[in-house]
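Let's sit down with a protein and look at its sequence and fold side by side. Which protein we use is up to you, so please pick one and set it down. Label the sequence line and the structure token line clearly, so we can match residues to local backbone shapes. Go ahead whenever you are ready, and we will take it from there:

***
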Amino acid sequence: MPNLTPPITTAKQAVEYRSKLQALEPNVEFLMSLYLHESMTVETIIEAKRAGITGVKSYPAGVTTNSSSGVVDYTSYYPIFKQMEEEDMVLNLHGECPSKGGVTIWNAESEFLPILARLAQTFPRLRIILEHVSTVEAVEMVKKLGQRVAATITAHHIHLTVDDWAGDPINYCKPVAKTFADRTALLHALISGNPKFFFGSDSAPHPITSKYSKDKSAAGVFTQSYATQLVIEALEIAVETGAVKEEDVTLEKINGFLSEYGRAFYGLETSKNARIELTKGTERITHILENEDGSLQVVPFRRGEKTRTLTWLP
């Protein structure tokens, strides 16, 4: 994600950042994006495409982590979106409106949906991803829009409701988790086999000092180390509670959601060789991750709970 400090707004910055990431993990193919910013021009998009940058991420001003330089008026970026459409780049949207007037964190996503619809109508060839959807309304809107509009679903949003994050900063994220009906809609989208819905972790390793801050708690949930297991376990819970039917949960649909649909939307080749195995055992999610001297600590989602062991197969 490009919402660093300062934000990644040029191809040069994105390429340098990619090099740093590849030095840490050379076996991962990093898809880089720029931060939609007022300094960007049509030439910025052309240069980004030439540099192999995948897309541009939009953050509404002040809505989430490091979004103070975000978007206030989407129409002012129409020339950017038009060039992205021409270059066949992806527009990743944090789909919420800033809290003002009648907008709060509770309805911020729903209030954003008319903006999404206008963007899809104005730029019908632009690939658009509504990231980390959290509501029934968002799921239904994505279904209605064309095949160039998709949505990601996180591991934590299919576990959480408002009762889980109210009073627990570790579970607090943007958009906030909402009702049982909203969570059920996400689960049904996950197992629908509809390629417009695929996994996106939105994993955010905020230090514990930022999560339990005297000011505002940092918005974000850290799931990355156990993301695949968390998806499987959310489906198991949903079957046990009757939220979804067991016969609707198939390996084909899970594989599509976790592996195939997203790659297809981004135009990437499907990897036939990489396989994983999940086994039940005694492994538990780490309580706290920390650096060598203990000065930086991060608390994972569902800390201390039992989980499956993930193994990469040869």
